[in-house]
Amino acid sequence: MTISTPLVRIPPSIASLGDYEPLAREHLNDNAWAYLSGGAADEITLRENITAFDRIKFISRVLRPLNSASTQTRLLGQTFEAPIFLAPVAHQKLFHPHGESAMALGASAMNTGMVLSTLSSVSMEEVARVSSAPLWFQLYFQPNREATRILVERARIAGYRAIVATIDTPVSGMRNREQRVQFHIPPGLEAANLRGLPGNSSQQPVIGAWNARPGSVLFGSALDASPTWEDIRWLREQTSLPILLKGILHPADAVLALESGADGIIVSNHGGRNLDTLPAAIEALPAVAAAVAGKMPILFDGGIRRGTDILKALALGAQAVLIGRPANHALAVAGAVGVAHVLKILRAEMEAAMSVLGCASLDQADSSILWSPPAR
Ligand SMILES: Cc1cc2nc3c(=O)[nH]c(=O)nc-3n(C[C@H](O)[C@H](O)[C@H](O)COP(=O)(O)O)c2cc1C
User: Fold this and answer.
1) What does the longest C-alpha to C-alpha distance in the chain come to?
2) Ligand 1 atom 10 nearest Cα
3) Residues of the chain with pLDDT under 70
4) Shortest-distance atom of ligand 1 to CA 50
5) How many Å apart are CA 127 and CA 19, to the nearest integer?
6) Which residue owns the Cα nearest ligand 1 atom 19?
7) From 270, 305, 339, 346, mutation site for ligand 1 pocket: most ligand atoms within 8 A of C-beta
């Protein structure tokens, strides 16, 4: 498929990531909107992911040399222009007719890393064809190991440079917003990577279908297929690609990740979509960083809405961040151009903050840039 990007003009009224959100609402129907914007239950964690950043303050530094300042980042032997990735988000054709292909074009325009979901509505091979951005593949373990192995091998052959195994979703969260609109994948839209896999169906189960089962709501059925540490050790043997585990909040799990052969982790509460009243992801980051003690890279997601949020995450122990909903708001409003615009805004905000904080490079963005008032 060739993607033609029509000339989209971004109105000057869009100055921040938050400006895209109300416009995205106008572009999406209730079904897609509930899926994109909702979180688990009362959405306390979803809100906290964002408001927790507001409580963290910087302290500025002056007169430091800033010539040849840079946001370059090295991760897993790969060099990135900025410590920003597009998070894996399933079913992006719900938000834009070209879905993940348009997302990848936006990433390519800004040379930004993108993590493609197992549940993408465009196949991983097709996305790789249209993209010049560094691509990583997000893996949901399949009930059948052979299917999981095939996905990982296909990703390697298609040029994906890392596997991001998401391990925080044994079952889909209790997302009341989705339940209220009876969220469904519309006809004609499918999880393209799963087509033809042994023991799999590319038509995802409808969320809320558990309502109809007798007996235990979840145990013994959906959970039978959920992965364990044993599966991570198995995955390690299947591929030479770097493996990152996405969805770690507990420091003890970070240590187990190291022991299981993972090359990195992503501190994340899945954007507040899985279990409500988990802590804000940024609140969980410092203890995980202390447990990892620099032995592997830590990425972070959940609630990043400003370039300054990225610096706060770096200061608390992350090496890079991922952006979920805001990139998809921009995708809905302005396709690939919107995605590139969001990435550009984040970079500009980050660079402006670095200059006031006196950071010429990201390794200077450590805890010393954060304001911690003395205890009284
Ligand atoms: C609509 C939607 C779909 C998502 N699908 C996936 C997915 O397929 N795989 C995955 O690992 N995470 C998925 N996530 C979680 C994101 O990768 C990321 O952890 C989260 O969105 C970060 O929070 P933010 O939206 O506040 O940036 C999804 C998130 C959203 C909003």
Assistant:
1) 68
2) 88
3) 1-6, 200-215, 217-224
4) 26
5) 27
6) 270
7) 270
268 lines ligand 1 (CB under 6 A): yes
Closest ligand 1 atom to 164 CA: 11
Active site residues: 270
Domain boundaries, the chain: 17-189+225-362
**Over the stretch 162-202, which tens digit does the pLDDT of each residue have?**
999 999 999 889 999 999 999 999 999 999 999 999 986 66
Centre of ligand 1 to C-alpha 156, Å, is 22
Q: What is the DSSP letter of 368?
A: G
Q: Which token pair is 171?
A: 């079952």
pLDDT of residue 208: 43
Q: Is the beta carbon of 323 within 6 A of some atom in ligand 1?
A: yes
Length of the chain as a residue count: 376
Q: From the CB of 166, is ligand 1 less than 6 Å away?
A: yes
**Ramachandran bin of 330, using left for φ above 0, alpha for ψ from -120 to 50, beta for the remaining angles:** alpha
d(CA 227, CA 217): 19
* Cα(368) to centroid(ligand 1), Å: 30
pLDDT at 210: 45
Q: Three-state SS for 320?
A: strand
Type of residue found at 180: R
pLDDT given at position 209: 45
DSSP assignment of 138-150 equals: EEPPPSSHHHHHH
* Overall fold of domain 17-189+225-362: TIM Barrel (3.20.20)
DSSP summary character for residue 95: T
- According to the model, what pLDDT value does residue 8 have? 82
Tell me, what's the pLDDT at 205?
46
Tokens of 279: 């802590």
Determine the Cα–Cα distance for residues 169 and 62; give it in Å rounded to an integer.
45
Cα–Cα distance, 24 to 20 (Å, whole number): 6
Question: What token pair was written down for 25?
Answer: 């609402």
Residue 73 CA to residue 80 CA, distance in Å, equals 5
Q: Does residue 137 contact residue 155 with C-beta atoms inside 8 Å?
A: yes
Rounded to the nearest angstrom, the distance between the alpha carbon of 322 and the centre of ligand 1 is 9
- Sequence-ordered list of residues with C-beta below 8 angstroms from that of 216, at least 6 positions apart, any chain: none
